[in-house]
């Protein structure tokens, strides 16, 4: 089957695949340059001595025309690490480095044999690298192989930054992920330009934006990577391989950095907002006056590595709605990321294997304080906030406020390993209730390619001062092997049914998950149509917590085979073949009843276990041209219909096309369609359509405008018993057919020259009504006009 699908995919994708052009070995290294300043990663020259300069006269304009670059250290000799490890880079890259007492400077010359095909567009900060060519600089300033600053630039100098955190894996698509937290924003300078040799960029990173040891002479870990986006080729200066589990352990070094003198960090960031909101009153949309609000954030460096943050009345900064999700057959709470700047700063310190700290649980904070940094081999963090949201810690109405306190300590051990402790406390409602969580975690690397991660936590929850606290455990453990060709992972995740992470996000409690996976990767020859074939086999099962420890069987499980074919030209095709089982549990249907012919409520009888729940998913990703990108997902699968405890079948199709006809303009069109049928009688259970349009025009690096329009149409039929077809009532209320339509529109004008200095003006509107595309069938629910102004003072 896999061979047939591979051949079919080759046939379908081959016409669109660009042919690999010849490499460009170009170089700007003059013949008279001191060879001691040239460091070729492919030759193992990974210890870089960087010239220190006293008078830096570099204008950050991307031109590389200053004399100082002729005497800089040169990082070159890149090799490819994706899709094929270890082969010479197809395009030459040279990075020039100098440093002064207050900043480090990088000059980038990225040669390209086809400069007309370089992907370089104006776009939002922190997003451009997902569609453009880029160069990334990684600085492990503590040289401890645990965490590194990452600084990306695209060919026009658009910035993306964040923190590389070993052990963190954010899923970016089928079969792949990245260990980067893109939430932190740093202050640095960059600019770039495309020319007839490729592209060039200049970067200045002031030390006040970094944390590092306070010693006279120090070494930093460094690696420089580059992606040629139209080909999907990634290359690095220090060679990278999957045979070593730690990426930072494979870095080179900047050695002998002397007398780094950053000024003391002091930042003040006042924020002013205004909101005019319209609400439906008596069938009419009534809009109030603009309501002004004011907040302020501040930061001060207690030491070079310890920073104190404080905030008063932090704004939510949510200038675009959370991504829409299909919820018609959803069992668990959906995760939405944090977006408020104060809470995003320093989040890496509070990260643990399970998400025990999720600051969006702090709904309406009046103020907060935070202390984060590194003291010797200890990373420390404290977060405190007062939430004015009128809810108790159990979600009930509350006239008072809730206090949040989080303490985190993590100690470095060995090379790249660490052990940590976390304590959270959420308390202060009128009844005196509280929720507390304590946890220890360990990440241990051994034999270069093995990683053992574990976390043991307990929660104590009390309804009131007179209610004794109840201790409930959580256990998580995994062992992973990295490898260029073979890798595997085994995991145990056990959460007591009454475990409560009041300051975190653990949507699935009372279950024990056991998972095992193994993957194999085969590489094509350089230049071949199929560059890589990755196949992953995984099996997992979910047990009731008590049943697992008493030797019971799983109530949910699946076996999956996931082949991913990577084609030349940055295209891929992923298949998922699945066979699963599911058992409905009586405790999940305590309020369910059947309505008989006389209207009386009868017991709800659960059906037999669902077995052989077969499914097929297809995920194509294709760069049609440099201006057109197509992604999609398709599901054909047997599923449980949770509201009816029935067996169902779903077809879901979600194409997403992005058009970038100019450097400044882009248009994204997507449509999500889902239809679920009952397997019992092939009747329709639900149909959902969500068309979405997102268009953006970038006037300059800082100034842009955006319009997002989304329409959600949902039909859900009356609930029926899975065996008899009789109507179903939940807590005495019969669930009948519903047809709804929801229209959302958002417009935003944004000016953001640097993090913390912003001006936003926006308008949003929500309408609901009939399940129809006719606007006459919709009624306004609310709208809002808002403005936000902030300025970052750095002293």
Describe the secondary-structure layout:
Blueprint: H1 2-13, E1 38-40, E2 47-49, E3 73-76, E4 79-82, E5 93-99, E6 103-111, E7 134-140, E8 147-153, E9 159-165, E10 170-173, E11 176-178, E12 180-181, E13 189-195, E14 198-206, E15 217-228, E16 233-236, E17 252-258, E18 266-281, E19 284-287, E20 291-301, E21 306-312, H2 341-344, E22 365-375, E23 378-387, E24 402-413, E25 417-427, E26 434-446, E27 450-462, E28 470-481, E29 486-495, E30 511-523, E31 530-544, H3 545-549, E32 556-567, E33 571-582, E34 592-595, E35 601-603, E36 610-625, E37 628-641, E38 646-659, E39 665-678, E40 684-698, E41 703-716, E42 728-730, E43 733-734, E44 738-754, E45 757-769, E46 778-790, E47 793-794
Parallel strand pairs: 1-3, 2-17
Antiparallel strand pairs: 3-5, 4-16, 5-6, 6-14, 7-8, 7-15, 8-9, 9-12, 10-11, 13-14, 15-16, 15-17, 18-19, 18-20, 18-46, 18-47, 20-21, 21-22, 22-23, 23-24, 24-25, 25-26, 26-27, 27-28, 28-29, 29-30, 30-31, 31-32, 32-33, 33-36, 34-35, 34-42, 36-37, 37-38, 38-39, 39-40, 40-41, 41-44, 42-43, 44-45, ...
How does this model look, in words?
By secondary structure, the protein is mainly β. The chain has a domain of 226 residues: Immunoglobulin-like. Helix content is 3%, strand content 53%. It has 3 helices and 47 strands. The strands form 5 sheets. The chain has a 24-stranded antiparallel β-barrel. A hairpin with a 4-residue loop joins β40 and β41. The longest helix has 12 residues. The chain is globular and about 95 Å long. The N and C termini lie far apart (64 Å). The N terminus is likely disordered.
């Amino acid at each position: 089957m896999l061979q047939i699908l591979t051949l079919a995919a080759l046939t379908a994708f081959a016409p669109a695949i660009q042919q690999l052009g010849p490499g460009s070995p170009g170089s700007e290294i003059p013949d008279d340059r001191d060879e001691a300043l040239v460091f070729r990663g492919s030759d193992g020259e990974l210890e870089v001595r960087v010239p220190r300069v006293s008078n830096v006269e570099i204008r950050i304009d991307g031109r590389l025309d200053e004399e100082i670059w002729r005497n800089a250290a040169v990082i070159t000799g890149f090799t490819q690490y994706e899709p094929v490890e270890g082969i010479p880079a197809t395009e030459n890259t040279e990075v020039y480095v100098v440093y002064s007492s207050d900043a480090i400077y990088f000059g980038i010359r990225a040669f390209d044999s086809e400069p007309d095909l370089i992907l370089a567009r104006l776009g939002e900060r922190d997003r451009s690298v997902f569609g453009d060519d880029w160069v990334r600089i990684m600085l492990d300033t503590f040289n401890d192989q645990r965490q590194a600053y990452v600084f990306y630039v695209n060919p026009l100098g658009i910035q993306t930054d964040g923190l590389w955190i070993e052990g963190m894996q954010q899923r970016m698509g089928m079969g792949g992920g990245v260990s980067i937290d893109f939430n932190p924003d740093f202050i640095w300078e960059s600019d770039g330009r495309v020319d007839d040799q490729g592209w060039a960029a200049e970067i200045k990173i002031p030390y006040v934006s970094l944390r590092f040891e306070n010693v006279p002479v120090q070494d930093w870990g460094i690696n420089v990577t580059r992606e040629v986006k139209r080909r999907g080729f990634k290359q690095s200066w220090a060679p990278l391989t999957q045979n070593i589990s730690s990426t930072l352990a494979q870095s080179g070094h900047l050695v002998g950095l002397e007398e780094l003198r950053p000024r003391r960090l002091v930042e003040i960031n006042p924020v002013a907002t205004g909101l005019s909101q319209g609400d439906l009153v008596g069938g009419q949309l009534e809009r109030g006056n603009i309501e002004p609000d004011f907040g302020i954030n501040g930061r001060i460096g207690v030491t070079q590595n310890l920073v104190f943050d404080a905030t008063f009345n932090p704004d939510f900064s949510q200038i675009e709605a959370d991504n829409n999700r299909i919820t018609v057959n959803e069992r668990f709470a959906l995760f939405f990321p944090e977006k408020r700047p104060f809470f995003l700063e320093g989040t890496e310190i509070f990260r643990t294997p399970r998400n025990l700290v999720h600051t969006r649980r702090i709904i309406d904070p009046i103020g907060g304080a935070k202390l984060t940094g590194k003291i010797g081999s200890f990373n420390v963090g404290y977060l405190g906030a007062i939430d004015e949201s009128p809810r108790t810690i159990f979600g009930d109405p509350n006239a008072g406020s809730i206090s949040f306190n989080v303490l985190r300590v993590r100690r470095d051990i060995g090379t790249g390993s660490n052990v940590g402790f976390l304590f959270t406390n959420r308390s202060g409602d009128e009844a005196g209730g509280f929720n507390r969580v304590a946890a220890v975690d360990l990440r241990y690397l051994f034999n270069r390619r093995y990683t053992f991660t574990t976390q043991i936590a307990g929660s104590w929850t009390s309804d009131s001062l007179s209610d004794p606290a109840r201790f409930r455990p959580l256990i998580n453990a995994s062992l992973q092997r990295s490898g260029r060709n073979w890798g595997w992972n085994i995991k145990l995740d056990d959460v007591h049914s009454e475990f409560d992470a009041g300051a975190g996000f653990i949507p699935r409690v009372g279950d024990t998950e056991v998972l095992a996976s193994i993957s194999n990767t085969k590489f094509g020859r350089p230049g071949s149509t199929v560059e890589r074939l990755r196949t992953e086999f995984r099996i997992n099962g979910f047990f009731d917590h008590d049943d697992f420890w008493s030797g019971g069987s799983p109530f949910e499980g699946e076996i999956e085979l996931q082949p991913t074919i990577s084609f030349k030209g940055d295209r891929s095709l992923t298949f998922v073949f699945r066979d699963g089982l599911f058992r409905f549990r009586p405790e999940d249907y305590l309020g369910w009843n059947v309505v008989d012919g006389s209207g009386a409520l009868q017991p709800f009888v659960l059906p037999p276990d669902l077995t052989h729940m077969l499914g097929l998913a297809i995920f194509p990703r294709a760069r049609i041209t440099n201006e057109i990108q197509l992604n999609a997902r398709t599901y054909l699968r047997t599923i449980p219909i949770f509201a009816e405890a029935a067996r169902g079948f779903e077809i879901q199709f979600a194409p997403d096309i992005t058009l970038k006809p100019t450097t400044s303009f882009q248009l994204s069109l997507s449509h999500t369609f889902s239809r679920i049928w009952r397997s019992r009688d092939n009747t329709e259970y639900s149909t959902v359509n969500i068309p979405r349009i997102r268009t953006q025009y970038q006037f300059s690096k800082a100034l842009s405008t955006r319009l997002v329009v989304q329409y959600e149409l949902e039909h859900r039929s009356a609930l029926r018993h899975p065996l008899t077809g009789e109507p179903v009532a939940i807590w005495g209320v019969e669930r009948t057919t519903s047809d709804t339509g929801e229209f959302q529109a958002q417009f935003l004008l944004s000016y953001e020259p640097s993090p913390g200095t912003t001006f936003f003006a926006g308008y949003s509107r929500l309408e609901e009504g009939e399940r129809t595309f006719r606007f006459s069938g919709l009624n306004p629910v609310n709208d809002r006009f808002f403005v936000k102004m902030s300025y970052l003072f750095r002293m």
